[in-house]
Design goal:
single chain, 422 residues, alpha+beta, 3-hydroxy-3-methylglutaryl-coenzyme A Reductase, Chain A, domain 2, Alpha-Beta Plaits, four-stranded antiparallel sheet
Length: 422
């Protein structure tokens, strides 16, 4: 390929776009077929979800079992490519059941919309004047979404602040919006844009950005569970988990991987249920940094009986109204399997899965090591990448596990050797 300029490309049907890309990049017939397979997403729907669609990229959908959350049982759909995550979450949920499962609370579906005002001659006066017109501003915001307001949501409050920045002081007005069963980005952004001219006039400045914040610290979920010491391998393993948490609490290099383990669970459910996982990741990691130091989203300690107690607190901006949760047929089916009826219920399930997945990772680290179980499950992926098909996949994977050589080069040797003997 010598030129990525493709005038009129966006106007072509999806199949024609794929033909053009195949011709330009030398895709094989099998590669074209793989891309053209959009799985559970009809091609006409895919073509309307994003721009320049040429196909789809599917990933496995697994079901995590054993989850009991706030006294209710759930089968949890999880979509991801990484082995051991679904198994780890299911095992963690089974251990948590012995002490009643997961308890989760929430602070409600509240998001923040920010309106940035620059070139303000008197920032502090502007802040006071904006707050003085709070009722008018909220009225204007709520006129943008009467349906949301009729369901009990809408703009509920208004904040204003003056920021000292590298380009000088600026005033930021913040709409506090109850988004109901929606994630809320579209509703909040529409409201922010609608009130911006009014705020601009009040502040005698220029409105610039009008956008939702993904630091959803008014939309928190808090999950907790007790893991019985004997069920998880004894008090030594409990101590190991607590020490692993202490490591993450003290060191951002370890903490990044600690929190990644939480998001393994949260994002997998988010993908399955059609959520904005970029917003989830942004909210989680910015919340973990709110104190000025990057900190774990979970805490772990030993109770008086020697059992392990885990707690998670994090933002969870999710929705069941709008977005892929409504447009993607597979996401709708996954939500039906889960049985979540509200955005709050979905958020609570995702928090429990995040805590469970963190427990699974820490327990493995503190006992057998993370690689033993993970690599055993990963061996099948290695076998496939080396060319194994059908029953040969399991045979090659089993041999690599027995030899403790789960590597591509060894898989390749075994595929060639076993293929000759068949």
């Amino acid at each position: 390929m010598t030129d990525s300029q493709m005038p009129g490309f966006h106007k072509l049907p999806m199949s024609e776009k794929l033909k053009e890309i195949a011709k330009m990049t030398g895709l094989t017939e099998d590669e074209v077929k793989a891309l053209a397979n959009t799985g559970g997403l009809p091609s006409d729907v895919a073509d309307r979800m994003i721009e320049n669609v040429v196909g789809g990229l599917t990933m496995p959908l697994g079901i995590a079992t054993n989850f009991r959350i706030n006294g209710k049982d759930y089968l949890v759909p999880m979509a991801l490519e990484e082995p051991s995550v679904v198994a780890g979450a299911s095992k963690a949920a089974k251990i948590a059941r012995e002490k009643g499962g997961f308890t989760v609370t929430n602070t409600g579906p509240v998001m923040i919309g920010q309106i940035q005002i620059v070139n303000v001659p008197q920032p502090e006066k502007a802040k006071a004047d904006i707050l003085g017109r709070k009722a008018d501003i909220l009225k204007k915001a709520n006129e943008q979404d009467p349906m949301l307001v009729s369901l009990g949501g809408g703009a509920k409050d208004l904040n204003a602040k003056v920021l000292a920045t590298i380009t000088g002081p600026m005033v930021v007005a913040e709409l506090i919006v109850n988004t109901g069963d929606a994630m809320g980005a579209n509703a909040v952004n529409t409201m922010a844009e609608a009130v911006a001219p009014m705020i601009e006039e009040i502040a005698h400045g220029d409105a610039l950005l009008k956008i939702i914040s993904n630091l959803a610290d008014r939309r928190l979920v808090r999950a907790s569970a007790v893991f019985e010491k004997d069920a998880m391998g004894g008090e030594g393993v409990v101590d190991g988990v607590v020490n692993a948490y202490a490591f993450a609490d003290a060191d951002p290099y370890r903490c990044a991987t600690h929190n990644k383990g939480i998001m393994n669970g949260v994002v997998a459910v988010g993908i399955a249920c059609g959520q904005d996982i970029r917003a989830l990741e942004a909210g989680a990691h910015s919340y973990a940094s709110k104190t000025g130091r990057y900190k774990p989203l979970t805490t772990w300690e030993k109770d008086a009986e020697g059992n392990l107690v885990g707690k998670l607190e994090m933002p969870m901006a999710v929705g069941l109204v709008g977005g892929a949760a409504r447009t993607h047929p597979a996401a709708r089916a996954a939500i039906k399997i889960l049985g979540a009826k509200t955005a709050i219920e979905l958020a609570e399930v995702m928090a429990a899965v995040g805590l469970a997945q963190n427990f699974a990772a820490l327990r493995a680290l503190a006992s057998e090591g993370i690689q033993k179980g993970h690599m055993k499950l990963h061996s099948r992926n290695v076998a496939v990448s080396a060319g194994a098909t059908g029953e040969l996949i399991d045979v090659v994977a089993k041999r690599m596990v027995e030899e403790k050589k789960i590597r591509f080069d060894r898989a390749k040797e075994l595929v060639e050797e076993l293929s000759k003997n068949r």
